[in-house]
Amino acid sequence: MQGFGWYAVPDSFKVYLKVDLDVAAKRAFNDPTRKDSEMFTSIEEQKQDMQKRFELENKRYFNLYGVHKEDMSNYDFILDTTNLRPEEVKDIIIKEYKNWLSK
Asked: Where are the beta strands (DSSP E) in 1-103?
């Protein structure tokens, strides 16, 4: 769900995209491009897998680097994408990036 660029490239514009877990699971479950690699039979199964991966990733990041990726202070901009279309997300991020550059 999240990348590691905020840590690996410290002088970058760091964005955290949030989404309601139920919405994320529904989006993932209904994404035809994921069907070859994820064989879930329900949205609930998809959701449980996403929760498990998130927790494992958090532990791994902390064990390897001593950081918590869910610590919002690591990011310059946080956006809840739950009710946004991809085009809206793109436009908002570009606007915020330009604001960040001007500071």
From this structure: 15-18, 77-80
